[in-house]
Amino acid sequence: MKRYCNHPAAYALIFFSAVLLIGCSKGTDQGNAPGSPQDPDATDKPRVALIMKSLANEFFATMAEGAKEHEREHADQYSLVVNGIKDERDLSRQVALVEEMVASGVSAIVIAPADSKALVPALRRAQKAGVVVINIDNRLDAEILEQESVSIPFVGPDNLAGAKKVGDYLAKNRTGDKVLILEGIRTSFNAQQRLKGFQAAMEEAGMEILDSQSAEWEMSKANTIASSMLSEHPEATAILAANDSMALGAIAAVKNAGRTGEVQIVGFDNITAIQQAIREGKVLATADQHGDQLAVYGIEAALQQIADQEKGEDQETPVDLIHKENLDQ
């Protein structure tokens, strides 16, 4: 025989419990739903992806730290996602990073492309998906941009002018007239521009370029190539390296050749190791494109474009000559 509870207090308890359950259910579905107005963690901040080249290169590690510091100082304005590739030549991975960031729903991509041509189609697709794209450090190829019918603002330094400053300083302080050049990746616009800057300075000074080869931005490769060039051209009195990593390789090559103090070396980037080499007289000069701020310039341009909902414009950023006399100023 079944027994039913008819006590008024029991009915009251059941009714009160039901009210609580309904109230909790409503709170879960609406009040605490991610992104709802009542959610204290909800945010409509834009997400900006920074995609760089090799983080093994101190220049890009410095760039990343500068960007992270900027994010900490402007945490209420945007959030940052930092990416880099292991190798300067790993173009497929950088393309994949662009696609991954678009798929993740970022608002903007700020990119230092490993190649001036190969990244353009992926970036065009990113723009088509509604992502703001800002090009920093290495300018994308103008012809390919036109072919792809895409306009991407460049925020960065005049690499030709920076290299010309370095080459001019070498010419004014030279110990000889015969030089060697270590180039960056030849399909990169900044490598092309730095080479032109070096060549222009040497031509104006009447200095002879004995050899010019690409070490693809890499220190170890620069060491090998510089060693070979010094062996083939013992009359060389200077090496112009298109970045500081290659300048470090040149320092080792000069030392191994027993020519420290005889062969002058210049670089480009002003990384910490080169600053010390300048103090020690192993490197004559370098160019500072303010790597700690370069990504910041791009991020600020991206945020401005998001706010204005209009296409951004190119912005030239500083590049300064660094040598022993002004290094610690």
Mind explaining what this structure looks like?
- The protein is of the alpha/beta class.
- It folds into two domains: 47-156 and 291-317, Response regulator (Rossmann fold, 3-Layer(aba) Sandwich), CATH 3.40.50; 159-288, 3-Layer(aba) Sandwich (Rossmann fold).
- 46% of the residues lie in helices and 17% in strands.
- It contains eleven helices and twelve strands.
- The protein has helices at residues 8-31, 58-73, 91-103, 120-128, 142-147, 159-172, 189-205, 219-232, 244-256, 272-279, 291-308; strands at 47-54, 79-85, 108-111, 132-136, 154-156, 178-183, 208-214, 238-241, 264-266, 285-288, 315-316, 320-323.
- It has a six-stranded parallel sheet, sandwiched between helices. It has a four-stranded parallel sheet with strand order 7-6-8-9, sandwiched between helices.
- Helix 2 crosses helix 11, helix 6 packs parallel to helix 7 and helix 8 packs across helix 9.
- The protein is elongated.
- Residues 1-42 have low confidence and may be disordered.
- Residues 1-27 form the signal peptide.
Keywords:
single chain, 329 residues, alpha/beta, Rossmann fold, six-stranded parallel β-sheet, four-stranded parallel β-sheet, disordered N terminus
